[in-house]
Structures are given as structure tokens and as C-alpha cells.
Amino acid sequence: MISIEDLILAPLYLFVIIGIAHLVKSNNINQHPEYKYFVKGLWFKIIGVIAFVSIYLFYYGGGDTVTYFLGAKALGNLLLHDFSKGFAVLFNTNSYENSLSSFNYETGVPPWHYFYNKNTFLICRLSAPIYLLGCKSFLITSILTSVFSYIGIWKFYRLVNILYPGNSKIFAYIILFMPSLIFWGGGIMKDSYMLGATCWITYSFYHVLITRKKIFWNFCFLILNVVMILNCKPYILISLIPGFLIWVNNSYLKNIKNSIVRVLVFPALILIFIGSGVLIFNSISGSMGVYGSIDGAIKKAQITQDDLLREWHYGGNNYKLDRIDGSISGLLSSAPLAIFTAFFRPLPWEIGSPTMVVSAIENTILILFVLYYLIRIGPFRFFRITFNDPFLVYCLVFSLFFAFGVGIAGTNFGALVRYKIPLMPFFFSFIYIVRKKTYLQL
User: Fold this and answer.
1) Residue 171 domain-assigned?
2) How far is residue 292's CA from residue 299's CA, in Å, rounded to a whole number?
3) For a surface tag, which of 4, 50, 135, 150 has the fewest beta carbons within 10 Å of its beta carbon?
4) CA 406 to chain centre
5) What does the pLDDT average to over 380-387?
């Protein structure tokens, strides 16, 4: 997968990428001091994706990232060979040309089990233009994909610095330099795209609906990232919507200075935002496939759980939760353990492969911090600080919903360490900000 040409071209691409990054930094650092970490964060991201590619090629001998690349390669070649057919496949149109039969020996044929799964093949569609931009190189396509993911992560980093200035160094460590985000958030994988999209959506949402500034471009990127998530991992959007509604509601309430008016307005705002949530969900449920209904979501979780138990494909690093029995009560009874699992596992004694070591270390640090602060400041003060800050409530609500979904459906630690990365910048930031606010009040 990596040739001599790749090793020659890669330094040239890196020179251009880092050169552009330095230009972006120099144009913004006077107004935004946190840009001093922009180039460093990008370097860490690139080093992470090189490590990711190396481990998948030389340790695992292949894997999903290679299969995604083969799909992107076939589609990229089709765009060059017959643009009308390539266009139909790229944008998933209703044309008869959007078919596996459009590919041939010259273009290569994408793996059929990926092509017929629209959520999975979306990654090939997104990666095909990057494949062409990267001179058809697996290594360079992986690097460019990690750069795309980094843009979204940087947007979230910018947001927390806007909301909580003076903490750029710590935020850099828990967002830009977090080992799991650097490693699993790079490469041609669903996880890379979803991590970047989730972070970018949050930044755009803040500017469109909270500050109502720079609305046009932020609205465009908000829609693009929503569409991306909707067509790849709709359950992420389901996890985001409750937090978004609470964030907007609380932000508007905090802007009302008169406490009597705030009490009077509160019920009306609750009804408005609950109605908005139902309306939003109903309008997009048709695009969510199995996630468009509770029964469908439960069924999908059962399928995912059974799939991840296949040791021949995912390895034997399984964890035990109650099997999903198809009932809502069964799901809710498993919620505490599922959420704990997504947040804090694998623990050190549950390490089953070298790639899980870093995740176990991060989880151990996180659980010790959480326990320390809950004991030191008490749960009541902890949650009082949280619920007085709309952004913290958003981070917590999203993290809980997402952790529940990932923890309940997964049964394999190898998959879990990848699936959970979209919640990590939110939950780690949440814990640090609560800690910081606690010390300021002592």
C-alpha cells in the first residue's frame, strides 16, 4: 500500500500543509493567542495518522481503513474514467449509473458489502476527492483525511477558548494532544470524519443560534456536517439534539435579567423547545433509517451487539453487558453500566491489545480525576456549577446520551476505543471546566 513514490511525495505534501498552517497561525495569533498551538496540534495529528497507518498495515496486516481506501480508489478512478458515472455514485443520485456495474476492471471495484451499505460507503464517497487530491496515494490520502478531521477539532478548541479564555494550554492537552484523539481520529475511517463533524457542528451551532454572528458560513458548515453525520452515524445526531435544545433554552433564560420574568417565561420556552425537538426529529427521521424510530434503534443496537461479538473479526477483547432484549426497560436497566463502560473502560486489567494501552491510561486518569473532584467538592456543588452554565449542560447531556448508545450496543473493547472518541473532547473539557470553576469559587 505504501510505495517509494509515496515516501517521495509525502514530504512535499507535508511541506505545503505545514506551510499553510503557519500562514493561518500568523494571520490569527495577534487576535487569538491560542493559535500558538495550531501548528503543534496539526503536527501531532499527522504523527498520529502515520502511526495509525503503520499499525494497520504492519501489525494488523490491513483492516477497515484499507477497505475504505479501496472503495475511494475505485470511485476516484471512475470519476476520471467516466465522470457522469462517477458523479452519480459520488453524490448517490437516483441515476441508473449509481450502480456497482458502473465500475470495471480499469477503475477497480469497491468491496460490494461496503457499496451496498450507504452509511459505510459514505466514507468512500468523502474520501474519493481526497484520494485524487492526494495523487492516489494511500499514505497521503490518510494524511489529508486527518487534516480534515483536525479542522473540526480545532473549531471545538477555539470554542472552549472563546467561552473560557486563559486556559488554552490545558485545553490543548485535552483536545489537541489527547493520544486517543490523535490516533483514532486520523486515517480513512468513520471515526475521523465523525469526530471532526461533531466538533465542528458544536462550533457552528454556537455562532448561529447562541451568539448569532457570522451566521451565513457557520450555517452552511452546520448543515454540511449534519448531513454527513445523518448519512453515516445518525445516532450521534440523536445524542446532540437534546443537548442543543437545552443549551439554547438555558442561554436565552440567562439573558433575561429579571428573575420574575424568567420564571414566567421558563415554561413557555420549555414547551417551545420540546416542540422544536419533536419537529426536528420528525423532519429528519425519514433520513435516519433504523434510527428513525425507537423500535428500529433498539433492533440496530441488537444487531451491532451481536456483530461485535464475532471474535474472528474483532478479536476476543469483549466485555459483558446484559444482552439487549428489545424492550425499553431492558435498555434503561443497563444504562448505568453502559455509560460507565463508555466513559471509563477499558481499565488497565482489561487491556487486550497494544492499541488499548493508551486508552486504558487515559481512562484511569479520567476516573481518578472525577472521583477526586466529586469527593473534594461534593456532588451537589459539582452539579450546581454544571447547571449554571449552559455549555457545560450541553457537554454533559451529549456525553451521557452518546455514552449510553455506544456502551449499550458495543461488546468489544477494540471497537469501543474507536467508537467513543467523539465524546472525549466534550467530557474531558466538561470535567476540567467544572474543576476550574470550583477553584474560583473556593
Assistant:
1) no
2) 12
3) 4
4) 12
5) 87
Q: Are residues 291 and 432 in the same domain?
A: yes
Cα separation of 109 and 80, whole Å?
Answer: 14
Q: Where are the alpha helices (DSSP H) in 286-423?
A: 294-308, 311-314, 328-344, 357-377, 379-387, 390-409, 413-419
What is the structure's pLDDT at 441? 61
Instruction: Write the CA distances from 325 to 216, 243, 275, integer angstroms.
Output: 45, 28, 30
Q: Which three cell numbers stand for residue 100?
A: 456497482
Q: Is the pLDDT of residue 139 over 80?
A: yes
Identify whether residues 437 and 289 lie together within a single domain: yes
Contacts of 311 (CB under 8 A, 6+ apart): 318
Q: Is residue 168 included in any domain, yes or no? A: no
Buried b (16+ CB within 10 A) or exposed e, 244-262: bbbbbbbbbbeeeeeeeee
CB proximity list for 396: less than 8 A, separation 6 or greater: 243, 386, 427, 430
- Name residue 298's amino acid: I
List all residues 6 or more positions away from 93 whose beta carbon is below 8 Å from its beta carbon.
Answer: 87
**What's the mean per-residue pLDDT of the chain?**
85
Which residues pair with residue 412 across a beta bridge? 318
Residue ending a domain, choose from 134, 153, 172: 153
Phi, psi of 255 (to 5 degrees): -75, -15
Per-residue pLDDT tens over the stretch 7-24: 899 999 999 999 999 999
Structural domain containing residue 422:
283-441
Q: Is the dihedral of CA 164, 170, 172, 177 positive or negative?
A: negative
Burial of 117 (0-12, 13-18, 19+ CB in 10 A): exposed
> Residue 27: inside a domain, yes or no?
yes
Q: Is the pLDDT of residue 128 over 90?
A: yes
Give the three cell numbers for residue 321: 453487558
> What angle (nearest 5°) sits at the alpha carbon of residue 310, between those of residues 304 and 312?
145
The whole-angstrom separation of Cα 124 and Cα 128 is: 6
| Number of domains composing the chain | 2
Give domain status of residue 191, yes or no.
no
318: phi then psi, degrees, rounded to nearest 5: -90, 155
Angstrom distance (rounded) from CA 371 to CA 343: 13
Note whether 288 and 436 are same-domain residues.
yes
The C-alpha atoms of residue 339 and residue 335 are separated, in whole angstroms, by 6
